[in-house]
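Quick one: structure tokens for this chain, please?
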Amino acid sequence: MTSPLAAPTLEIQRTLWVWCGVYVSAWVSGLLVGAPDVAPSDSSATIAAAYATSPSVLVNAALVHGLAAVALYGMSTLLGSERMRSATRGAGLATLVLSLIQLAGEALLTFGLASDGAAGVIGLDSGQIWAAIQVVDGVKMLALAALVLIVLMGQSRRVLWATLVSGATVLALLASAAGYLTLSAPLMAAAYVALPLLLIWAVVAALRFGTPIAAPEAAPAS
């Protein structure tokens, strides 16, 4: 006879893999679409021009700040142990909210609603908005590091290779977060390491860390 947990376990694992696939695919697609090449030292006029000449940036933002964020939140609702599930969902929700804030900022820049150092439609400076987006990204990286750590700490039995991937991801995210919070270009480059590690971690999480929600025991037959 089939165990009461068999069906829920299979369903949860399948859903987790779907969210994982959407998350990784959204990020890879976003990277292929590309984003404006902007540095912290660029002027507001340069930033405004970069976004004006890159109409695909909104597609990129919708993929990495929209679809990927929703998928990661979906993963967070299925990851971790029962005792830490609220913390896991909280970290996932934080990354989703911060990502949507970034998406809104990217939309302002893409539609030219911010100023280029002169007069803007809504009186906001492109350079300031871009800097704010990066700072929000830094805060989001802290939330991501917390998510990875919470999922890891919630496991009663930890496999060495999964622990190493999680640890490396946390360290890379913290270094990258420091760069984005301070707008330090050298430290921001850590994102080139943090992002691949995060995508690898997502696959590892789907493979190793998915935990089914316990199903109620069947009542004994009378």
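The chain is about 70% helix and 0% strand.
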